[in-house]
């Protein structure tokens, strides 16, 4: 069985760039975001560490 949706190659998203260890534009500040520099993937979009801090979404409480 052939499904048309599978004909399209999966798009290489910003999240994929980050997972590959590469930088990608942060959706908030347009700076390059890297996982190794604290960036995270939120809803499939890269967000840099600085913006995460501003948004207060770093789960520092996990270590409490
Ligand atoms: Zn940012």
UniProtKB/TrEMBL annotation:
Name this polypeptide is given: Uncharacterized protein
